[in-house]
């Protein structure tokens, strides 16, 4: 489980509910925006896991989805465009007891932040990566994104997108992510369970979430998804089989699968592998200053 | 300072792959263990094989600040070294070379040519063995007893087994005996003092400064000439409890550093100009989120890829202009390796106090130079002051991360504490972190927050020492420099005095905050002012002028990739005193 706060051992605390994770700020997402469902799902998942707001940090980049930390009652960092995973990795490494949840969008996460996506997955950093994928740049009023379909007309592709979209799921699996799922914000019940599983999973978890943009993406709206989404579990899927996971992830037609595509447990996370974290607690709260022994070692190497 | 009785420069030249580093290291250790002062500079290129590498090692019984102007002994590992540098050897100097493979150049008056018949002496096919023979010859010429070299070689090669040690000792002895028998020793034997010194590079000093300051997170992407900091950190991290991460790019480096700092760890990163350019957006993020972080730029020749293995002081305006918008920051340019070591803890205390990014401008000259240092001069336990940092949980208390306090400094709670839940944001935000740009951009809140952040810096000038004028007040010339030119200007003034010209020295280290008043007073009372800097456009001069409104009488600038040697400055001063000169650009070849 990602949290190192042992829920069983501490004094019983009042059971939290989803509304305990609601901040004082009203989301400024458009009415009907898919991101509301994602917010709701994370609130439910955290309540079910009994995580206290101060044990959680949401980290985002820039974009509609990245306004998320302001609307969620927990520690939060609203960072630079594309950089949420890098900031989150530093935060997690300096305090590996925190539950770090990265909340971002397709442009932020797969476009400008693509390099960090690859490498954070490879390192199996114990982060939960929630990508609100609306297949469009919304905050900049509707340009093509790395997940926009071929042929899609947007303000920056008025005659149709000529490029092939990225497949976040197969990318994540190939790069070494150890929990790879797809959710749909129109199905909060399923999404909340996927999010809960991702937080509990030790390692890098990606949930690519269809989070329709009701304002700028008329191609991939709720009716589009409602007709097509199908739960993997209903078709019998073995999430330990990465090849089957990739095959299912490549399907994009009348059926688009949601659910847990791939999970590999027992892979050491970056903080597991890091010798400096073997003992002594989080780096951030360790005492500063060198011991005489350490000084002797350093100076000895210079003589 | 007492005059240097022994002041000796050894150069070793060859191509990459010929193993220059090994004899350099062996000799350096022998020198510092005798308590001798050392300053080395390695002129090299960005390649792994070939090219021309030329290592200067200056050894003295007194402190040295530069690698000097002259060459007393030159060790040629290839023909190219002989061809390039022989004409700069002066009477009394010695050239040592492999007589089997290198043709000596034309005879020079008073220059002793020592050709070593390497195959005869070694009976070995190992090409690197010529280096060991040569070390034997160098130490024979300096009248050092052989047992010292024998134990150094044993220490160096024991990891390769007894056979390698024996072979090296045997050929070193052959070179030692051959030189002793056939040639005149150097005019002075190598002295010794009672107190051994230590040896480090400027990058080691930066890394050690971080370790002593309590850095717990260091990340980097390899980039010359900053990579040495990463190497030191990686080597020592496990002993010191520092996490070291090599990251996919400098954008990731900078942002990871910010994440670690927000969690409450002291965090820093180092790079060179190109990597620093990638970091700049993050530096502004640290500014508006008010997260204390330290970013180090080890400058090299620019622009763009520029001169990867050469030195320059041309990133000043990059640091000044790093990231968009107005935000609070600190910029410091340490003047030497030991100053860099002391500056890192100092800037960490300041960024913690003022909750802003701090930038450190080193350069290749400081960072890759190797120097002797007295371990007793190293304060390994500097004061660590984390400022208004909240590290203990509390009952819910209406905490506002960006509270508009009278000082402008808002107490900073580390992430994860009960009672202090908050968000930090790169968007402009109110005291409670609410973004102001989304629905209605409130001009009053914006103004309040800009002024809050600005106000917190109102005391910072008192926290850094004002620059002082070194040398006689009424000197003929005032030399003004910044950062790494401190040592070379200091030595240039020693030479100027010998030539009957009095000079004093204003060395500026803190760029932001800038001691405008103190600097104005010094410049206004100078007779003739000359700014010395290692760049083409006079970056520091233009900055000083923008802050003080002052102009100066002349400039000495160098931008050929190589650092200043003292004579470059001496000649520049003489030129400025004698003729109408605006900018003097020394010829690199100018030597004693």
Summarize the structure.
The complex is a heterodimer of chains A (303) and B (592). Chain A is α/β, with parallel strands linked by helices and 303 residues long.
Our estimate of the beta-strand percent of chain B is 15-25%
Kindly, what is the distance between the CA atoms of the first and last residues of chain A, rounded to a whole number of angstroms?
A: 47 Å
Strand order of the largest sheet of chain A: 2-1-3-4-6-5-8-7
Class based on secondary structure composition and strand pairing of chain A: alpha/beta
Largest sheet of chain A: 8 strands, mixed
Q: For the terminal residues of chain B, how far apart are their CA atoms?
A: 22 Å
| Strand residue percentage of chain A | 5-15%
CATH level 4 superfamily of the largest domain in chain B: Thiamin diphosphate (ThDP)-binding fold, Pyr/PP domains
CATH topology call of the largest domain in chain B? Rossmann fold
Can you tell me the CATH class of chain A? Alpha Beta
The secondary structure category of chain B is alpha/beta
Helix content of chain A: 25-40%
């Amino acid at each position: 489980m990602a949290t190192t706060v042992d829920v069983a051992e501490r004094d019983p605390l009042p059971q939290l509910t989803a509304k305990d994770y609601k901040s004082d700020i009203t989301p400024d997402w458009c009415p009907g925006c898919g991101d509301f469902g994602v917010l709701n799902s994370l609130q439910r998942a955290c309540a079910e896991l009994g995580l206290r707001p101060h044990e959680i940090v949401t980290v985002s980049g820039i974009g509609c989805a990245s306004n998320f930390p302001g609307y969620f009652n927990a520690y939060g960092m609203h960072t630079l465009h594309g950089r949420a995973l890098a900031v989150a990795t530093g935060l997690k490494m300096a305090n590996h007891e925190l539950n770090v949840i990265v909340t971002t969008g397709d442009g932020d996460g797969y476009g400008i932040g693509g390099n960090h996506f690859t490498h954070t997955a490879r390192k199996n950093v114990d982060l939960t990566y929630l990508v609100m994928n609306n297949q469009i740049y919304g905050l900049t009023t509707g340009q093509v994104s790395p997940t926009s379909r071929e042929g899609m007309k947007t303000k920056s592709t008025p005659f149709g997108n000529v490029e092939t979209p990225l497949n976040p799921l197969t990318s994540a699996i190939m790069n070494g992510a150890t929990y790879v799922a797809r959710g749909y914000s129109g199905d909060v019940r399923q999404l909340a369970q996927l999010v809960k599983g991702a937080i509990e999973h030790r390692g890098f978890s990606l949930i690519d979430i269809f989070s329709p943009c009701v304002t700028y993406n008329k191609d991939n709206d709720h009716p589009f998804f409602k007709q097509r989404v199908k739960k993997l579990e209903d078709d019998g899927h073995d999430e330990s089989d990465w090849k089957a996971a990739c095959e299912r992830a490549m399907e994009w037609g009348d059926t688009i699968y949601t659910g847990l595509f791939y999970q590999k447990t027992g892979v050491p996370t970056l903080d597991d592998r890091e010798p400096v974290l073997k003992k002594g607690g989080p780096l951030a709260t360790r005492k500063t200053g060198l011991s005489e022994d350490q000084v002797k070692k350093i100076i000895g190497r210079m003589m | 300072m007492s005059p240097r009785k022994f002041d000796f420069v050894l150069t070793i030249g060859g191509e990459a792959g010929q193993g220059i580093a090994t004899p350099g290291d062996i000799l350096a250790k022998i020198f510092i263990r005798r308590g001798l002062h050392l300053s080395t500079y390695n002129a090299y290129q960005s390649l792994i094989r070939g090219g021309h590498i030329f290592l200067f090692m200056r050894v003295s019984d007194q402190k040295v600040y530069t690698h000097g102007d002259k060459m007393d002994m030159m060790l040629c590992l290839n023909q190219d070294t002989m061809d390039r540098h022989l004409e700069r050897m002066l009477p009394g100097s010695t050239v040592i070379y492999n007589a089997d493979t290198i043709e000596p150049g034309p005879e020079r008056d008073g220059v002793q040519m020592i050709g070593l018949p390497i195959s005869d002496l070694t009976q070995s096919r190992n090409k690197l063995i010529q280096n060991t023979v040569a070390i034997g010859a160098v130490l024979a010429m300096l009248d050092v007893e052989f047992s010292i070299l024998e134990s150094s070689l044993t220490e160096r090669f024991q990891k390769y087994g007894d056979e390698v040690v024996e072979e090296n000792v045997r050929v070193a002895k052959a070179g030692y005996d051959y030189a002793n028998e056939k040639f005149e020793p150097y005019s002075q034997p190598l002295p010794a003092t009672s107190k051994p010194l230590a040896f480090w590079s400027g990058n080691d000093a930066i890394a050690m400064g971080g370790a002593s300051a309590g850095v717990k997170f260091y990340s980097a992407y390899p980039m010359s000439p900053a990579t040495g900091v990463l190497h030191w950190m990686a080597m020592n991290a496990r002993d010191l409890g520092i996490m070291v991460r090599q990251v996919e790019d400098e954008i990731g480096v900078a942002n990871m550093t910010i994440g670690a700092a927000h969690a409450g760890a002291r965090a820093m990163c180092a790079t060179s100009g190109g990597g620093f350019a990638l970091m700049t957006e993050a530096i502004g993020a640290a500014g508006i989120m008010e997260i204390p972080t330290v970013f180090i730029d080890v400058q090299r020749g620019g622009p763009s890829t520029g001169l990867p293995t050469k030195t320059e002081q041309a990133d000043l305006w990059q640091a000044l202009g790093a990231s968009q918008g107005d935000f609070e920051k600190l910029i410091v340019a340490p003047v030497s390796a030991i100053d860099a070591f002391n500056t890192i803890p100092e800037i960490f205390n300041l960024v913690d106090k003022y909750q802003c990014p701090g930038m450190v401008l080193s350069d290749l000259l400081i960072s890759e130079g190797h120097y002797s240092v007295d371990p007793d001069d190293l304060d390994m336990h500097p004061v660590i002051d984390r400022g208004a940092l909240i590290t203990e949980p509390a009952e819910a208390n209406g905490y506002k991360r960006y509270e508009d306090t009278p000082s402008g400094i808002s107490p900073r709670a580390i992430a994860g504490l009960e009672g202090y839940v908050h968000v930090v944001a790169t968007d402009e935000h109110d005291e409670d972190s609410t973004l102001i740009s989304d629905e209605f951009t409130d001009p009053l809140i914006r103004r309040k927050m800009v002024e809050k952040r600005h106000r917190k810096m109102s005391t910072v000038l008192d926290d850094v020492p004002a620059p002082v004028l070194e040398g006689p007040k009424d000197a003929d010339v005032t030399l003004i420099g910044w950062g790494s030119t401190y040592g070379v200007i200091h030595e240039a003034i020693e030479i100027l005095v010998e030539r009957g010209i009095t000079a004093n020295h204003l060395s500026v280290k803190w760029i932001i905050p800038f001691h405008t008043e103190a600097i104005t007073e010094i410049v206004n009372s100078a007779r003739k002012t000359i700014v010395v800097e290692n760049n083409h456009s006079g970056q520091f001069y233009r900055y000083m002028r923008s802050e003080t409104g002052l102009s100066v009488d002349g400039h000495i600038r160098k931008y050929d990739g190589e650092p200043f040697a003292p004579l470059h400055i001496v000649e520049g001063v003489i030129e400025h005193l004698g003729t109408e000169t605006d900018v003097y650009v020394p010829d690199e070849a100018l030597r004693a």
